[in-house]
Design goal:
- InterPro entries: ArsR-like_HTH, LysR_HTH_N, LysR_subst-bd, WH-like_DNA-bd_sf, WH_DNA-bd_sf.
- It is built from 11 helices and 10 strands.
- It is elongated.
- Helices cover 46% and strands 23% of the residues.
- A hairpin with a 2-residue loop joins β1 and β2.
- It is an alpha/beta fold and 317 residues long.
């Protein structure tokens, strides 16, 4: 019966079968040719049966050699897979996932995702960086974070937040609606629970508008242009709490993404999801994510699905 077979020698035999020669196998493995020959001779001794035979100036596998080479590929694939699984498990027990994300996500989707991640993997650390999409992508490219959570408005034509997504591994987290925000005292009939039907934007052409961050301002301008007018921007602020307070005071109207309303809803405003208005939220990595990053992304998408279901249900009420 054959003795225990050495994995390194099995790897050498598989390389010879795959490349067709000892010389090519040595080149592929980065070994000296005499070392490959030595491993093959020792493997034949361990197997107790000839595995190669001379063929001119080269060698070819015997029937036993072909059988063992085929099995070696299977064995090595399982061993390598087990090593990767053990490495991933070790990373999840004591690894770290670093995430850059915009403020409304940090106040809503991320706390929920991090809570479930820590419950499932208590030893896994999470590092958070507040950054708008361009800065989040810069941090990802510089290796400062493992995941960049970013957004882009998809239903109107204007400058995209991220110019070329093909450079990244992209995971869609969820699509969130964009809401029109008006003062509660101006609420149309039939408003329920601070939510009303969206009026046509063109009816607000003479209103004062409150613009948000640079990317949201670009979305507002494009959306109003699509409706046939240029909005009169009375105030600009990145603070969504301030936007709602200004709207509640009667200073103007605005548009905000749904996540900002989850983070804070001023009782003095009413909101209406704009038909077809979507902000696409994505998790970006460079190449395949690390195991800790993959687990974090999975939790983000799970929370995103829950939020999307809740938004859809609210739209039906």
């Amino acid at each position: 019966m054959p003795a225990d077979l050495d994995l390194t020698r099995l790897r050498v035999l598989a390389a010879v079968a795959r490349t067709g020669s000892v010389t090519a196998a040595a080149r592929e493995l980065g070994y000296a040719q005499p070392s490959v020959s030595h491993h093959l001779a020792r493997l034949e001794t361990e197997a107790g049966i000839p595995l190669l035979q001379r063929a001119g100036r080269g060698v070819r596998l015997t029937e036993a050699g072909r059988l063992l080479a085929d099995r070696a590929e299977e064995i090595l694939a399982r061993v390598d897979g087990a090593a990767r699984e053990l490495e991933a498990l070790a990373e999840l027990r004591a690894g770290r996932a670093r995430l850059a994300a915009f403020p409304s996500a940090l106040a809503t989707i991320i706390p929920a995702a991090v809570a479930t991640l820590r419950a499932d993997h208590p030893g896994l650390a999470v590092g958070l960086l507040e950054a708008e999409p361009p800065e989040a992508v810069d941090a990802l490219r510089a290796g400062k974070v493992d995941v960049a959570l970013v957004f882009e408005h998809t239903d109107v034509a204007h400058t995209r937040t991220i110019e070329d997504l093909s450079r990244f591994e992209v995971t869609d987290v969820f699509d969130e609606p964009v809401h029109l925000v008006q003062a509660a005292r101006d609420a149309p009939p039939g408003t329920r629970g601070g939510v009303c039907d969206a009026p046509a934007l063109a009816t607000l052409a003479d209103a004062d508008w409150i613009a948000g961050c640079e990317r949201c301002r670009a979305d507002l301008l494009a959306r109003c242009a699509q409706a046939g007018f240029a909005p009169r921007i009375a105030f600009e602020t990145d603070d969504y709490v301030a936007i709602q307070a200004l709207v509640a005071s009667g200073a103007g109207v605005s548009t905000v993404p749904a996540l900002t309303l989850r983070a804070h809803r001023d009782p003095g405003v009413v909101t209406a999801p704009l038909p077809g208005a979507i902000r696409r939220i994505m998790a970006l990595t460079i190449g395949a994510p690390t195991p800790p990053a993959r687990e974090l992304i999975d939790r983000l998408t799970a929370v995103g699905r829950r939020f999307a279901d809740e938004d859809a249900l609210a739209a039906l009420v």
